[in-house]
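name: query_chain
kind: protein
chains: 1
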Amino acid sequence: MPNGLRHVLGLIAGVILAPVIAAGLLYGTDRLARLFQTYFFRGNGQWTAVAILTLTGVTLGVLVGSRISPLASLIPGLLFTGVGGLWAVAPVWMTRHSSHKLPDTFDRGYQYVGPYGVLLVLGLLLLVGSLSPSRWRAREPRTVRQAYEYGPPDGGFVPASGPAPGLGQGSAAGPGTAPRHPAREGQEPPDWASPPPGPSPFRSQ
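structure:
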């Protein structure tokens, strides 16, 4: 996939997933908080909240630790860091201008994750995960060295590492030279390779 198209898809994913992650976080937090306050940890409400928070956490992990374009994690990271940072530096202003602006279920969750620094932590996590240079570059093809581990382009064989079998450290044999078998070094030629003693049967009389 071209790098430009990958970043465009990452931008679209970030714009879509930012409100989805926020909604899952606020809703799941509100449901668990209400269950804890009423000590009613039974039924489907508990497991629904746990499942929503689990899916939200998995989505955050995929955005931070995968080969998806870093724009997918940068967009929600900027959003969460901005809101969480405002809660940290201007809590009174945020209470007056951002509270009771959402539906009740989401607003109650927002009152937990905003003032208590959860949004700030998640936002910084997403931002730091977006800064990795390898995520901004396209996937590199195999290098020439890696390709030569399987053989050079002309079809010859070049070992990946180490000397060729049968060649010592001081051997002057160049590439493509057939190695000598160490068991044959210093051996006499076999009997059948030497001419028989006596007059040659092919010598003219």
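note: Residues 166-171 have pLDDT under 50 and may be disordered.
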